[in-house]
Design brief:
4 helices, alpha+beta, Aminopeptidase, 38% helix
Length: 120
């Protein structure tokens, strides 16, 4: 696949909250980027974030496959932080990470958290 095709496909990436069905993709994504995530921890993480009003995991979905993820933590008004940004190596440099960060900022501002910072 050449870079032109990858760029066009990234334009169709859908940013959404993580779902239970994403667990295998998350484990694979973490492994590809050098992090270890087991299925029990991944399932527990998804459940906890689904219940939280203050922290959300967002994923970049490309045709049903998770190619990136990020966590938005609403620390205390007006502060929110963006953490744990991970993008599949094939899609790095193609705008997936930017789309995830942009969605975090939009969601934070819409809920009154207008100071957003990225934790590296």
């Amino acid at each position: 696949m050449n870079s032109i095709n990858v760029k066009l496909m990234v334009d169709t990436v859908y940013i959404r909250e993580v779902e239970k069905e994403d667990v295998e993709d998350l484990i694979e994504l973490y492994a590809l980027t050098g992090w270890k995530l087991d299925i029990e921890h991944a399932n527990r993480m998804i459940e906890q974030f689904a219940k939280s009003n203050y922290s959300k995991i967002l994923v970049a979905d490309l045709n049903g496959k998770v190619v990136g993820k990020v966590t938005l933590d609403k620390v205390f008004p007006p502060y929110a932080e963006i953490v744990n940004l991970v993008v599949h190596p094939i899609y790095q440099g193609k705008g997936v990470g930017s789309r995830l960060v942009e969605e975090c900022i939009n969601r934070a501002v819409k809920t009154g958290y207008n100071v957003v910072y990225l934790m590296c």
